[in-house]
Amino acid sequence: MPVVPPEKLVQLQQQGEGIRNICILAHVDHGKTSLTDALIATNGIISPKLAGKIRYLDSRPDEQLRGITMESSAISLYFSLLRRSAPEAKPEQKEYLINLIDSPGHIDFSSEVSTASRLCDGAVVLVDAVEGVCSQTVTVLRQTWNEKLRPILVINKMDRLITEWKLSPSEAYTHLSKLLEQVNAVMGSFSLGERMEDDLRWRERIDEKVNAVAAAKDREDVDGTDGLPKSRKAQILEDDEGVVTSSTPAEYEEKEDEDIYFEPERNNVIFASAIDGWAFTPRQFAGLYEKKLGIKRHVLEKFLWGDFYLDAKTKRVLGPKHLRGRHLKPMFVQLVLEQIWAVYEGTTGGPNGKGDAALMEKITKSLNINIPAHVMRSKDPKAMLSAVFGAWLPLSTALLVSVIEQLPNPRTAQESRMPALLAASPGSDHLDEKVKSAMVHSSSAMGEPAVAYVSKMVSMPESELPINKRRGGMLSAEEARELGRKKRAEIAKAQAQANGEPDVSSVTDALSTAAIGEDDEIETSAPQVQQDQDTDPEHLIGFARLFSGTLTVGDEVYVLPPKYTPARPHAQPQPKKVTITALYLLMGRSLESLNSVPAGNIVGIAGLDGAIIKSGTICSQNEGAPNLSSTTAISTNAPIVRVALEPAFPGDLDKMIKGLKLLEQADPAVVYEQLESGEHVILTAGELHLERCLKDLQERYAKCEIQAGEAIVPYRESIARAEEMNPPMHPELGRGCVEGVTSSKQVTVRIRVLPLPTPVTEFLLKHTGAIKRLYSERQAQEQERSTGSDHVEQGESEDQVDDIKEHDIDADDPLAEGGHNLTMSEFKQKLADTFLEEKLDREVWKDAAEHIAAFGPRRVGPNVLIDRTEDVVCGKFLREEHEIERTLNGTTTTKHQSTFADKIAYAFQLATYQGPMCNEPLQGVAVILEDLSLHCSDNEAAQNVGRLTGEIIRTTRDSIRLGFLDWSPRILLAMYSCEIQASAEVLGRVYAVITRRSGRIVSENLLEPSTNFTILALLPVAESFGFSDEIRQRTSGFAAPQLVFEGFEALDEDPFWVPRTEEELEDLGEKADRENVALRYVERVRSRKGLAVRRKVVESAEKQKTLKR
């Protein structure tokens, strides 16, 4: 294949109609990178013989070693096609630029999938023909649906149906039909969910209109119809959009759902084998059989898939009803699959696996294919197979033609995607119309505003940048040998580390740098060697998609902060102005310099160091710019594994901190924080992700030896009603009720602690994003009303303390950004309805939503503070603007009561952030403030406000903890959802490993017609370290798990339970024979945090043990 020069790709960037931006998405090991190799080979970058083996876009040594992709990589490809403008016109050559992004399939790197999908207009979704629809397949299909990408389905690894399962063509057709139904069922579920939401919103609008008309008629009856002006009557009968209520359609308008499904007759399904280098669509076979059958191509391609049969005598297509008892094969089996099976039989079939030479000669003659002589003489049957398919059904042709014909160009895609994306961005009503129009129409004309979305920051060593690379053609022989030596050394080092062997690279380096000469010469050369080692720093390059305008090197653009809104463009923090220092064409392992880039392209942008942390929006203007990075469509796997790091040598601490900041910018799923104790902690998505981060940190970013502590897993604390509870501490007050008195006896607080109903807890976890947004709006309203009073300033300082660690709770909770679109009234109504679902203690929860004063911890958590005092001293959180004004005007509480109420709310935040069992956050707890009494005059309270503040916070926090322990406490474990595909032979070993690690089997399904099972289990995160390696070792590599964070699950055991009744003492004894698993987890966390742990140093002091010699 001829090598395509970069200048040709740069030229094609200017032709917007000929650009296609696609990403390749799939479950892990479904063949994405092998498929990409076949496309790269068309541009002469790699040899076609190595396609599927070299995995060109897996540029990291650990990716090559493990055989999986860990980072999304982009490459630009050239493709030319002969197309007719009319059926009888002469074919014309048209050239296309395909910007392709290969993404990982492992769940630990799902954030890379999110970053890739936002930049593209179409998606190629791969599904393994044997494994079928897996967990990540559903995830990537949902990603394409949310991002409004147009997908193409590739059923890959078709060769496994022939070589492994030994299926006949008819059996394979049945299996493929079921597989296609599974994929379409997933797409149908997304469509159904959206349809139900639209239907619900339509019903709500109808109800609102009906109620508005009814209210208007009631007012007319009271006031008299003649008293109202005519225009006012018309205004009542019309809504805001001018639609007359009486003419509103009474039925919901259904949307067309034909375009969402994968159907081979519509040529959006490709059947392929990436490892053998072939692929086809029904359209290709329709072209082959068009003349032979005398049926037009566009007619035949609609009947090649499905229950259609060919009458060989009449050459007519028959439906199922016209078979008349004849046993005919479907056309797809007869005309397509049997031909594919025949090639495999002729090349790799036969009794000895050498193929059938006579059959192959017949096939090559009928297809008019010339096989090179050296391939015919080859003893490798795979070489013959690849040669036949490469000449007959090349993979690149089928895939790239489908991409060009089925997927939209940037202008068409943005016209359908951008309106919804811009409407979901904050402050969409204040967007500049010029910016909006340019983005929707992908306008690249000079003077149009430039808007780009940076999905992630990619780190590149300085030596890999184009400015430092050799120019003017190929490498010399010496340079090629040196490059090969370096690559082999990298791979050898990675293999040695994986096998636990001692690293010999340091010895090799020492010998290579050894010098013979005087001592002073060696001494003077040593600093130079050290300087050379440190002169390859990392540079961050923005991985971006330009939606409008044209970017040029030297342009000054604004980087919009995460909380930017066009409604307040000059609010703090203000957009940062940066200068673009370089633009790059992304070519997989290398970069090519650009001077300018028009809209619709994927590009690398230099000059954004320090301005963008993970993702962001850059715009050529500040006012009216859209904030694309704050939309909720981008989803990542929650970072749940937390590890403390320290340098092996204390002098390298500054290096490590600098490296951690670089790592946080370069990896979209890493969170770095420094705890109050001084520990440096990173949060990662899983064990494999953590391993990759530590490797990058030591070898690329910090370049020093780093020691990682034991992984820290989050827990939650809660309470439950149980039969075996201790009697209440204060029977006269009731269970969970505590009356706390400050040490000065001047303030009394009565608090009742109750377990929240389970539906309410789930609702609060799901809508944490709505609570955060409502709280921010409330703070903004209070700041506008206030004139700098002392208690507001103090509240702001407390908020700042909370905001420092706000990402901590978000990182632990993958649902932390849900429910953004609910208004105050909608959220309040839904919460009240959820409270009413509780059957127990209905009187307690009847109007609980009205009296909620705060949520916690961090003011957004799944715990509530309910104010039941007579004067409502803590106020109501869920109240409208007019209710706030009425409360302020008619308030009866004293100034000091209000001040102390703030301290109670603050104590509630402290108590819910650190529970009494092991200082972990609470979940599902309601704290009811029943009374707040001051036993002193206003003058005394004013004089002692500082002392009373500390006393009230301490007393309230201790009272909440005592009330918590009055119930039966529970520890909540972070849980992984584990999906494993395993054969029947290793099923027992998989079950043994899951059971030994305290896991629980949820379901087990047989994948027909194979003997493989899909196992779904729940596994505690604390027990998951080393789980994947153990599964692979026990099953000899036949099973590999996928771990997805599922949430927190209560361990149904009281950590402090001890036998008390006569039956328990008789059965279990005083020491309780069985181990208390919950207590084991609690003590493990307490030991890690340095809290007191009750342990018996001596178990059996009266027994003597003599060691045998």
From TrEMBL:
What SMART domains does the record tag this protein with? Answer: EFG_C
Q: Which domain of life is it from?
A: Eukaryota
Taxonomic classification: Eukaryota, Fungi, Dikarya, Ascomycota, Pezizomycotina
* Protein name from the UniProt record: Elongation factor-like 1
Q: Where is the composition biased (Basic and acidic residues)?
A: 777-794
- NCBIfam families documented for this protein: small_GTP
Q: Where is the Tr-type G domain?
A: 17-411
Name a single GO biological process.
Answer: cytosolic ribosome assembly
